[in-house]
Design a protein that fits this description.
Length: about 375
């Protein structure tokens, strides 16, 4: 027995049985059927890219945030009453719940959920097989409770369900395109922030996962803002930035992914610091993937400020949380106050198949009241 094993044994024997970590059997990954050659259980949700699918530009709409309906609830966390476990992932964001079946939440429960996600930024619900197996008609009904469903301009979707955004990689992927010309796959972003009314509460789950890896990283854009000096924040609150979907469309048109642009790309101006419509919290709202330029500043000035914010977001592990996927996990986040990044670290050839339901929310509210958002 090695010295390390001896020490481990001594420590273990001195601990109460409840605190001793014992090897656990690996969970059965949802991709097992597929990767063993059996019919893939979620084959009906594999992505398609119909080449003749086109939509007109999105039109503005009034968004009533479901979280606002829970604000005056006597117990806005009663939807968690049946939970068997609630773990705060980090002080800044993230709450992991077991024992609550999202599929059976009523309208009031969904409003409460929206408020809890707005407050914690990120929620992880384990053991949600019923939710996932109810299928795409249910996904749409679920999402519509929270806002008008977004149809992604370039991603694959299940046949006849364009509102369900799919992320997908399998054995046919011969390289990690995120790393094709970069040293990392890490790309912090808020989903489709180029839209005039980007998403708020967003739901995502994996139908098939790699044996290990493929986690998703999240960060709190509220906490990121709080780390900055009051003088700098006061300046940032006066700024607005252009967010663009043109590069994403061009990437798709280049044929490297799907080849579809089902709605012509747009760019929109958003405040650099936005205010959450329900909690009133202020958050940084720029991201490397879609933000291009701060309006009114010279290029070097814009680049310097954006890069400072991106670097701050990149390296602040102390305001981040990481979702380790387990079978039948459903994750929800508030795209207005968090950023996230896929982690493309898994073996090329493994299947990773996820579905996102993306309700749009309000046009971002500037933290600085009266900020003019014309370009
Ligand atoms: Fe995303």
């Amino acid at each position: 027995m090695s010295t390390v094993e001896t020490i481990t044994q001594v420590i273990t024997q001195s601990l109460p049985a409840s605190l001793v970590l014992r090897p656990q059997p690996a969970p059965v990954a949802q991709n097992n059927e597929a990767d063993k050659g059996d019919p893939y259980r979620y084959a009906h949700l594999l992505p398609v890219f119909p080449q003749d699918e086109h939509y007109p530009p999105l039109t503005p709409f009034d968004h009533v945030d479901p979280a606002s309906r829970a604000l005056n609830h006597p117990n806005p966390r009663s939807f968690l009453d049946n939970s068997t476990s609630i773990v705060q992932l980090t002080p800044h964001l993230g709450e992991e719940v077991r024992g609550v079946n999202l599929a059976t939440l009523d309208s009031d429960g969904r409003d409460q959920l929206a408020l809890e996600v707005a407050r914690r930024g990120l929620m992880i619900f384990r053991d949600q097989q019923e939710f996932i197996d109810r299928g795409p008609d249910f996904y749409l009904e679920w999402g519509r409770h929270f806002g008008r469903l977004h149809i992604h301009p370039t991603s694959g979707h299940p046949e006849n369900y364009p509102e369900v955004h799919l992320v997908y990689r399998d054995g046919n992927a011969t390289y990690n395109f995120e790393r094709e010309d970069r040293i990392t796959s890490t790309t912090w972003h808020s989903d489709v922030s180029y839209e005039l009314q980007p998403p708020g509460l967003t739901t995502f789950f994996l139908l098939s996962a790699p044996e290990t890896g493929g986690d998703t990283a999240f960060t709190s854009q509220v906490a990121a803002l709080k780390r900055l000096s009051p003088q700098f924040v006061a300046f940032l609150r006066t700024l607005k930035a252009i967010h663009s979907g043109f590069e994403q469309a061009a990437y798709s048109r280049s044929g490297r992914r799907g080849g579809v642009v089902r709605r012509e790309p747009v760019q929109n101006v958003h405040p650099v610091i936005r205010k959450h419509p329900v909690t009133g919290e202020e958050a940084v709202y720029v991201n490397r993937q879609f933000t291009r330029r701060i309006v009114g500043l010279k290029k070097e000035e814009s680049d310097a400020i954006l890069n400072l914010l991106y670097d701050h977001i990149d390296k602040s592990v102390d305001i981040q949380a990481r979702v380790k996927w387990q079978p039948y996990t459903v994750v929800l986040w508030d795209n207005r106050i968090t950023a996230h990044s896929a982690i493309v670290d898994f073996t090329v050839g493994e299947r990773r198949h996820g579905a996102r339901i993306t309700p749009q929310a309000e046009r971002p509210i500037p933290a600085l009241e009266g900020l003019n958002l014309t370009a």
